[in-house]
Amino acid sequence: MQGRTKGYAQGIDVSHYQGTIDWPKVAGDGITFAFVKATEGENYKDPTFLQNANGAAAAGLLVGAYHFLRATSSAAAKREAQYFYQTASQANNLLLPPVMDYETNSGNLSDASMSAVAKAFLEETERLFGVKPIFYTGNAFANHFDTSLGTYPLWIARYNASSPPDDAKAWTRWTFWQYSDGSSGGTLPSGTRKVSGISGNVDLNEYAGTEDDLLRAYAPEEDKPMTEAEKQQMEELQQRIAALETHVNISGNQTPPDWTKTSTSAAMKAGIITSVNDKGMPEFITIQMLYNAGLCNAELIKFFKEFSADTRKAIEDLLKKK
């Protein structure tokens, strides 16, 4: 796989093991993203998840949640994915994709079974979150998984300062590389493995792109000023909307009288109007719109004329325009 590149975005991943974190200091030390442990297995929630997730986001970092997989069957993997989603959904501003951390084989599964378990978790996670999740695993462990899983972005762990991760069956490139556990492996661009705001060791990661690349890939696009052409298009659209409102609405801000209740109720049930608080009298507006659309045939006119004297007069006024 590819090596690290100068200028690529730096990040960390954390759990309760890091204790209380000063996230503004972390952000001020060149860290631009963080993965935060949310859950493990079917019922464990990291006690610092919400504190870390919301704190990192508030400090301006791009944040994602990860789940440590314990499942030894596809059914259990789906249950873990559901628990992960229920927990991670409690956090605000998770912009990075959800992560499956699969790095142990406690059930002594075959490679085929491990791949099936991973796929079950990933597919359920994608269904629930609505975004393709990231696959985290170790350098050697990655070879347990078949090529069908290569469609998922890889976050690979390899603590080596000079040698990049090895190619695996499913992947030949990484999207994120965990290059240090804080005590061994590579170092930050500053030459240290220590991150301000964290008292002990912390895992260090690199994204396969610059901070701008990271933002383009995962952050919502910021509002951009409209060009002059776009402003003109907007003004023209506003004028067209105003003209359309004039065309279909007989105007007025009157409160609909009691005698309109029967007709407005029927119109609402039919989906012709959405509220009796629309501009003017809903019954008259409905007739006006039908007339302007060329749908006021003889049968409808007869039907509307039976409502009231005011309604009959409104229809007669429209007919005089023909």
TrEMBL record:
<dbReference type="InterPro" id="IPR017853">
    <property type="entry name" value="GH"/>
</dbReference>
<dbReference type="InterPro" id="IPR008270">
    <property type="entry name" value="Glyco_hydro_25_AS"/>
</dbReference>
<feature type="coiled-coil region">
    <location>
        <begin position="227"/>
        <end position="254"/>
    </location>
</feature>
<protein>
    <recommendedName>
        <fullName>Lysozyme</fullName>
        <ecNumber>3.2.1.17</ecNumber>
    </recommendedName>
</protein>
<keyword id="KW-0326">Glycosidase</keyword>
<dbReference type="Pfam" id="PF01183">
    <property type="entry name" value="Glyco_hydro_25"/>
</dbReference>
<comment type="similarity">
    <text>Belongs to the glycosyl hydrolase 25 family.</text>
</comment>
<keyword id="KW-0175">Coiled coil</keyword>
<dbReference type="InterPro" id="IPR002053">
    <property type="entry name" value="Glyco_hydro_25"/>
</dbReference>
<dbReference type="InterPro" id="IPR018077">
    <property type="entry name" value="Glyco_hydro_fam25_subgr"/>
</dbReference>
<keyword id="KW-0378">Hydrolase</keyword>
